[in-house]
Amino acid sequence: MALAALEAKIKSGSNVLPDLLSMAKAAENAERYTDMCSFMKALVAAKVASGGDLTVEERNLLSVAYKNAVGARRASWRTLLLDEYKTNTMIDEYKKKVSSEMKTICSEVLDVLEKVLVPNVEKLIAGGTEDKHEALVFYLKMAGDYYRYLSEIVLAEGYEKKAESKYLKGTELAEKHLIATHPIRLGLALNFSVCYYEILKDPKNACDMAKKAFDAAISKLDSLDEASYKLLRDNLTLWTSAEKAENAEEEPTEEAA
Question: What are 46-64's pLDDT values in tens digits?
Fold first, then answer.
């Protein structure tokens, strides 16, 4: 009902941005992440229609909404992959339900990113809005993340290559426009290296990328984003140790928000 009322206000030409932002925050506090996604999707449409881009706060809320919505399904999917469920045909049907929910969420946010936010910010940059490179890297990282999530559940669809493509484009822009210790650049390097290690099965590239980002950041300790730096270090330690230890039990790697 709340979203329907807001949609009616949008059609009437009213400024609904404050209402949408308020509802998104309320949905977050109530841990109603599917609702939060709906509010943020509507906010994106209204913001872009007005000729603007998301603020840092709005970008983060968009990320939180979809990350939590898909995160619960990713956790469910991983649980259903355990050995104890592998020969259960009823569980196979249940897995299809979980994967369908994941695909729906990922496809929705990818539409928002690829059809709305990325083209909009590229247009703003082309028009001379130089400070939007940070936003563009943020959106490309998000797109890479959701293609990576799709590649976890859908084989032979090329999602892993799409993830790599988005991460590569984001990395090129980040290295050109963001300092080595910028949280978005570090988070991108962290998630891209996870993609190489877990999805593309390329541990050498994963370690090389993590080490490159780690070394570049450590040289500028005064402005270092500690959280992403520590995750890069932990993953790098885990991956290099795994290479040395035959039959080592695989541990989950960590990624940025």
Answer: 999 988 999 999 999 999 9
